[in-house]
UniProtKB/TrEMBL annotation:
Protein name: Glycine cleavage system H protein
Native source organism of the sequence: Pseudahrensia aquimaris
PANTHER family in the record: GLYCINE CLEAVAGE SYSTEM H PROTEIN, GLYCINE CLEAVAGE SYSTEM H PROTEIN-RELATED
Comment on bound cofactor: Binds 1 lipoyl cofactor covalently.
Entry superkingdom: Bacteria
Keywords attached to this entry: Lipoyl
Gene: gcvH
Amino acid sequence: MGTTYYTEEHEWLVVDGDVATVGITNHAQEQLGDLVFVDLPDVGTEIAQGDDAAVVESVKAASDVYAPASGEVLEINEALSSDAAIVNASAESDGWLYKMKLSNPAELEKLMDENGYKALIGG
């Protein structure tokens, strides 16, 4: 298992070598409520840190998911196209959104560890 990082916008990423798996935090899915649709980036898309990378839509609202780091999308979680609720059930494991090859690992220094994230959300 790689190192886990968090953003102030409630994304997480697990970095293993130069590949990161990205998703939204359990806290974020609790705030959104039941997800009904997930719009993921196309494989091969180059995204920059802070860019809109995906959209998660719940019965309450649609929310942008921002790229926690820059890189190229390698894979998307195909299971979410037919069952967005996987994110509700398992936001920080089976409900991952996409995997990317990092182009600038130094950007990770701007992100939080688990303790920093827990402090942010008052956990």
